Amino acid sequence: MTERIEQEVRRRRTFAIISHPDAGKTTLTEKLLLFSGAIQIAGSVKARKAARHATSDWMEIEKQRGISVASSVMQMEYRDCVINLLDTPGHQDFSEDTYRVLTAVDAALMVIDAANGVEPQTRRLLQVCRARNTPILTFVNKMDREVKDPLALMDELEQELGMTVCPFTWPVGMGKQFGGVMDLRAQSMRVFAPGEDRAGGDEELITDLDNPAHESRFGMAWGQAQGELELVREAATPFEHAEFLAGHQTPMFFGSAINNFGVREVLDALVELAPPPGERASLQRVVQPTEKKFSGVVFKIQANMDPAHRDRIAFVRCSSGHFERGMKLKVTRTGKDFRPNTVVSFLSQRRELVEEAFAGDIIGIPNHGVLHLGDTLTEGEPLQFTGLPFFAPEMFRNVEVADPLKTKQLRAGLQQLGEEGAIQVFRPMAGSVLMLGAVGQLQFEVVAHRLEHEYGVKARIQPCRFQVARWVTADDEVELKKFIAANDHRMAYDAVDAPTILVEYAPELRAIQENWPKIHFHALREHA
Ligand code: GDP
Question: Could you give a GO molecular-function term held by this entry (predicted)?
Answer without folding.
Answer: GTP binding
